[in-house]
Amino acid sequence: MKKFFDIYTWEIAETIILILFFIILNFIFKKIVYSIGKRSNINVARGKLISKYITFTLILIAILIEAIILGVEPNQIALVFSSVFAVVGIGLFAIWSILSNITSGVIMFFSFPYKVGDKIMIHDNDFPLEAIIEDIGAFQLHLRLDNGNLVTYPNNLMLQKAVTLIQKDALDEDYE
């Protein structure tokens, strides 16, 4: 066992430094996301979702760097990633709509001008909609119509359609 530590002293030290660095980096990114969410008055659940995406991305980057630390050649890494991306690419093509909604959800977290409780009008030629935003999820918005019906509206369509703000915080006024 002592011989193992003698041979791999630098790799072990670099791995520990890498893990500490990514734990600190993940902590910083989560604080930034939560502060943006708090400043923009965004639902905490959406902040947690974005934090999960960031953590997942950081883990993938850490695995790549760890492979380099352990002496894997770049051409070997390229071969593995090209094979994985080919398989994942085929799978993702089949579910592009879901990925489009997730990507739209991330974009909406940082730059969506409407909040939970706002009454909006979506200008859709086929299905114009006037409703109150009840929840903004990873895939869709939950909208409450005036008649009480709940409508789920895909995030990617929210970014494609014209939307008008009718009333800010309509939910608060309904409960008064």
Written account of the structure:
With 176 residues, the chain is of the alpha+beta class. The protein starts with a helix and ends with a helix. A hairpin with a 4-residue loop joins strand 3 (140-145) and strand 4 (150-154). Helix 2 (9-39) packs antiparallel against helix 3 (44-69). The chain is built from seven helices and five strands, in the order H-H-H-H-H-E-E-E-E-H-E-H. The protein has two domains: 2-94; 112-174, SH3 type barrels (Roll), CATH 2.30.30. It is elongated, with a radius of gyration of 22 Å.
- Structure annotation, total helices: 7
**Strand count:** 5
Distance between the termini: 70 Å
Average residue-wise pLDDT: 84
Number of domains: 2
Structural class: alpha+beta
Strand order of the largest sheet: 4-3-2-1-5
Largest sheet: 5 strands, antiparallel
Note the overall shape.
Answer: elongated
Low-pLDDT ranges:
none
Task: Please give a quick description of this structure.
The protein is of the alpha+beta class and 176 residues long. It has helices spanning 2-7, 9-39, 44-69, 74-94, 96-111, 155-160, 170-174, and strands at 119-123, 129-136, 140-145, 150-154, 162-167. Strands 4-3-2-1-5 form a five-stranded antiparallel sheet.
